[in-house]
Amino acid sequence: MHRFVLKLAYEGTNYHGFQRQEELRTVSGEVEEVLSRLFPGECQNFIGASRTDQGVHALGNILSFDTEAERNPENYERALNSYLPEDIRVLSAWKKTEDFHPRFTTHTKEYRYSIDRARVENPLFQRLYYHYTFPLDLVKIREGIEILKGEHDFTSFANPKAQTLLQGGSAVRCITDFRLEEEGEYLYFTVKGNGFLYHMIRILCGTLLEVGRGRISPSALSEILAGKDRRLAGPTAPAKGLCLLHLDYGDAL
Description:
The protein is α+β, with helices and mostly antiparallel strands. Helix content is 24%, strand content 30%. α1 packs across α2 (73-83).
C-alpha cells in the first residue's frame, strides 16, 4: 500500500467545510469524487489535516489517501486539476511512507484573518475579507494579543460544541506566534500554534475587535481565559475572513 499526500488550496465560500459529509458539498468530498471517477476503486482511506469550517479558505491544507497503484504523484496532481471545480486546486503531490499521518504527525498550523476597513467594501475581496468599519485602537489590540500568546486553556474562546470539549478533553493550546499587521485599509491577524479548537481563531479575532472598539479592556482577556466560559468572550468573527495559510511538518513533508 502506498500513501499519497496532496497540498490543497481552495476558496471555501461554496463548501460546507473541508471534511466529507454525506449529501453536502465539501472540499474533500469533491476531491474524493474526482479520484473515484478517474481511478475507480483505486484510492481509499482519505485523511485531512485540518477540518476547516464552512466558508473558510486555505492555501495549504493537506489530504492523504492510500492506494496499491504504482503512480507518479504528478499523475494525480494533473488529473485532479483538470476535473476539479475552479475554486479547488492541488498545489503539490507527494508519495510518502505509511507512517505519515496528516493529523498525528507533529506539525504547526498558521492561519490569517483578513479585514477590510474601507468605508465602501471592496467587491473584489467580498468573499475573502470581513468588512468592518468601526474605529479601532490598534495599540490596545496588540496589548491583548500579547496576553493571548503562549499556552492557555482556551475554553472561553471555543464553541461549546467543540468535540474536544464535549468529550471532556483538554482545551489547552499553545499560540506560538500572534500578530496584527496593517496595510492601508486592510488588517491581518496572523496566528500560529500547535492546534486550535472549534471556532477558536474566529472567536479570538472577534474578541480582539471588541478590544479595539473599547468594549473589552486588554487586561480583561486574562480574566476571560481564567473564567473558562464562552459567554465571557466576544463574538465569533465571520468565516469568510479566515484562511489556513500553512501546515509545517518540518522534515516529515
